[in-house]
Specification:
It is built from 10 helices and 15 strands. By secondary structure, the protein is of the alpha/beta class. β1 and β2 form a beta hairpin. The termini are far apart.
Length: about 300
């Protein structure tokens, strides 16, 4: 998926009514035995498919449900038994209501249901997201971790606090050796850390560290956005986050204002590769600056 396509879809997760991709399509890729990733207009969907049914991770926007269902029908005849939301943003939960009507059980962390149940305001983008309809809310929620046993696989969902949001879960396919990161990882681009939803840069790094503990050289990594990668790709992403956030903390500690930091362009060497239309070089600096300033004030 191109960075432009990701920008279109992410605009909705912070307040737009729906995706604006004029010709949405869904592409399916096999990443392990019985494990698939579906790319489309929304966060990457993970799927476990087998004799016990379909276990889906995220479901993109409501308008994408027909396309997602069509793509799934080519690898499984039945609708998903379970849908696990990695966090509350609409590009990952928008299809909940449609799939629940078909019999899917929606599962998520406790905080996902809390945020979906009430209007959310994003200060960074000055946008308001209305509460989700009752039919879209997770039916089953959990606090720390949850395991699902089906299709000869154990899927373990781990909550990681204050990462991309305060309700993030990443999923480990233990037998297939696949990890779905949700929006904890943006592959090949600067990440969006939703500070207004309880996220933090330190939390993202800590979450990546937990995934690295589970991964080996053969692990396939499904990011929330971007192409499937491996442990080395996840390590490189972690190193980028650590180095840029460390540099920002130094700049904040030195007393520089956000305007001075922006003028300095501290990450110019990375901007050409990682900056994109949604998280531009300026927006990435602003996210890191706000996060570092908040951390400094706490101390």
């Amino acid at each position: 998926m191109s960075k432009r396509s990701v920008a279109i879809l992410l605009a909705a997760c912070v307040g737009s009514a729906a995706a604006e991709n004029p010709e949405p399509t869904v592409r399916t890729e096999t990443v392990g035995s019985g494990v698939y990733v579906l790319y489309g207009s929304g966060g990457n969907i993970g799927a476990s498919v087998g004799p016990d049914g379909v276990f889906l991770i995220d479901d993109q926007y409501a308008v994408m449900t027909p396309k997602v269902t069509e793509a799934l029908s080519k690898i499984a005849p039945q609708p998903p038994r379970f849908v696990l939301n990695t966090h509350w943003h609409d590009d990952h939960t928008g299809g909940n209501e449609n799939l629940a009507e078909k019999g899917s059980v929606i599962v998520a962390h406790d905080n996902v249901r809390v945020r979906m149940s009430a209007e959310q305001f994003n200060k960074f983008f000055d946008r308001t997201t209305p509460a989700s309809p009752a039919g879209a809310l997770p039916m089953v929620t959990f606090n720390d971790s949850a395991s699902f046993h089906l299709n000869g696989e154990e899927l373990r969902g781990y909550h990681v606090p204050q990462a991309h949001t305060d309700g993030d879960v990443f999923i480990h396919f233990r037998k297939a050796n696949v990890i779905h990161t949700g929006d904890i990882m943006f592959a090949g681009m600067y990440p969006f850390v939703d500070l207004d939803s309880g996220g933090s840069v330190a939390g993202v790094i800590a979450a990546v560290d937990r995934m690295l503990e589970l991964a080996d050289g053969k692990t396939r990594i499904i990011p929330g956005h971007g192409e499937v990668t491996d442990r080395a790709g996840l390590e490189a992403y972690r190193d980028m986050l650590a180095s840029t956030s460390r540099r920002m903390r130094e700049l904040v500690k030195s007393g520089k204002t956000i305007e001075q930091v922006l003028a300095e362009k501290p990450f110019a060497a990375l901007d050409g590769t990682l900056a994109w239309s949604f998280i531009t070089a300026e927006r990435y600096v602003r996210i890191l600056y706000r996060d570092a300033a908040a951390s400094a004030s706490v101390r």
